[in-house]
Design a protein that fits this description.
Structural class: alpha/beta
Shape: globular
Number of helices: 10
Order of helices and strands: HEEEHEEHEHHHHEHEEEHH
Bound molecules: adenosine-5'-triphosphate
Helix content: 25-40%
Protein name: Abc transporter protein
Largest sheet: 6 strands, mixed
Radius of gyration: 21 Å
Distance between the termini: 68 Å
Subcellular location: Cell membrane
Strand content: 15-25%
Length: about 300
Amino acid sequence: LLQLSAPLFMLGMMYREVKQALTNMERLFGLLDERQDVRDADGAVALASARPAVRFREVRFGYDPRREILRGVDFEIAAGATVAVVGHSGSGKSTLARLLYRFYDVDTGAIEIDGADLRALSQSSLRGAIGIVPQDTVLFNDTIGYNIRYGRPEASEADVEAAARAAHIHEFIVGLPDGYDTPVGERGLKLSGGEKQRVAIARALLKNPSILIFDEATSALDSKSERAIQGELDRLAVGRTTLVIAHRLSTVMDADQILVMDAGRILERGTHAQLLAMQGVYAQMWDLQRRQGEEVST
Ligand code: ATP
């Protein structure tokens, strides 16, 4: 009986591991328990461009057909440029990212990459070209080395280390008793919010994507870590077409364009300076955040 139950026990463990890994993947975008009905078109082509331009053309979309979330969104991220999206909670910012990754198809309008409709591209090439640094990085119950290598499983140890160095987490890792072999995740070492984001940045660096989606953390990092992470992200974004979902205005000041979303529409757009000069919603938000910042620091 013992001989039989050991393999069964192992099988049970493996099943849980696999299920956990899948759960982690889905949690990445809050997609748990959701249908994925996006399919490759016949004759889908691979995305080839190393510096693609991304275009949202009058995009309308609702998770439920009775409730429209994006109500005609039109903007372009020029090749290699950074567009940041700000706006109230629920205005549809993260939905833009989910559509770009093609977790869902738009209802009307189109998303284009270098003029090609997303729906005509193969999903594997699209998702291979997009790197995501999510709001809350989910770590697999595995070693920290594995968690970084996940960005490109065939990467060499030297590549993993180079990515960790660039994300400023290498020193932290080699200081751990088991270094890169230290188990992390729910059953291992718990990393801080900033450390997790660095793992995500290292992952993205390894993947070397031409399009980058950065969903900024809502949970406040201390301002020193926030500045450091911002610096690492800025470097990661150089030369890549980048969409930033921003929760703090202080981090979007240098974006090539800022979109202010409100209830599924773009209310204002421009650079930081242009938006301040407009004295509209963005300028009010900026004022408010600055005053709140002052309160915190006094
Ligand atoms: P936040 O700043 O809080 O992250 P957001 O601007 O990113 O908000 P979205 O996550 O894009 O907002 O959500 C926009 C709207 O879509 C919300 O009203 C939300 O309830 C709804 N929504 C988001 N995801 C789903 C989903 N998977 N199924 C149904 N409705 C959803």
